[in-house]
Specification:
The protein is α/β, with parallel strands linked by helices. The chain has a domain at about 5-55 and about 115-220: Rossmann fold, CATH 3.40.50. The protein has 7 helices and 8 strands. The chain has helices at about 5-15, 35-45, 80-85, 90-115, 135-150, 165-170, 200-220; strands spanning about 25-30, 50, 55-60, 65-70, 75-80, 125-130, 155-160, 175-180. Helix 1 crosses helix 2 (about 35-45) and helix 2 (about 35-45) runs parallel beside helix 7. The longest helix has 23 residues, at about 90-115. The chain is globular, with a radius of gyration of 17 Å. The protein starts with 5 loop residues before the first helix and ends with a helix. The mean pLDDT is about 95.
């Protein structure tokens, strides 16, 4: 399956999540930046509030796309034990990676929420969304962090993921929706016709329009 763009992927995911439409306790948490474009469509179709959940990969300096782990905005750390061992990473190495990730998380908290805290999660039905996963490190760190906040139900919604990762993801959430699990899996962007980088400005626009659409829906 090849998606035209992130918005189409979001609409297709929304079709699979219709049971959550107008769910009183519902909340969509999207991973910026690409996940917010997908999450916006879920918010629009399902009439649920949209917020960002900020997590960052712990990346090797010479290979920023390769994640040895991830840090979430709540402080939860997920490590890929195999990668840590393969690269002979010390505690000092990992602490340096975590420090870099923490700085970017702080920047994004200020940029996307003006420093406001994460929306309340406890006892809510949370739909966690991204535009796709490769290693899954960032998404797994996010799942661990959100789980610690005691949601009533945690649903993971992903357009595309490697088949190898789906069993692990499914074991960590109440429900997993994945639209495509292509083999071989090359990279998330290979499964989109249009996969341009989402800017900070676009993230802010998606969040603003989602909030306006929800306010209009509630006023009717």
């Amino acid at each position: 399956m090849i998606f035209h763009d992130r918005e189409e992927a979001g609409r297709l995911l929304a079709e699979k999540l219709r049971a959550y439409r107008d769910e009183p306790s519902g909340l969509i948490l999207a991973l910026p930046r690409g996940g917010v474009a997908v999450g916006y469509e879920l918010s629009r179709v399902l009439h649920l509030p949209l917020d960002v959940f900020i997590a960052r990969k712990l990346s090797m300096p010479d290979n920023p796309e390769y994640a040895v782990g991830a840090l979430s905005e709540t402080g939860a750390v997920y490590l890929n034990a195999d990668a840590v061992e393969a690269f002979h990473l010390s505690h000092d190495d990992l602490n340096a990676f975590i420090g870099i990730a923490r700085e970017e998380i702080s920047r994004r908290q200020q940029r996307y929420r003006h420093g406001a805290p994460l929306a309340a999660v406890t006892d809510r039905t949370v739909i966690l969304v991204d535009d796709g996963i490769a290693t899954g490190a960032t998404f797994l760190a996010t799942i661990e962090a959100v789980t610690e906040l005691s949601p009533r139900r945690l649903v993971a919604a992903i357009p595309v993921a490697p088949q190898d990762n789906t069993a692990l993801l499914r074991s960590r959430v109440d429900e997993l929706i994945v639209l495509a699990t292509p083999e071989p899996f090359l990279a998330v962007g290979h499964h989109y016709q249009r996969f341009t980088q989402v800017t900070d400005e676009e993230v802010l626009e998606y969040l603003k329009v989602a909030q306006q659409a929800r306010a209009a829906h509630l006023s009717h």
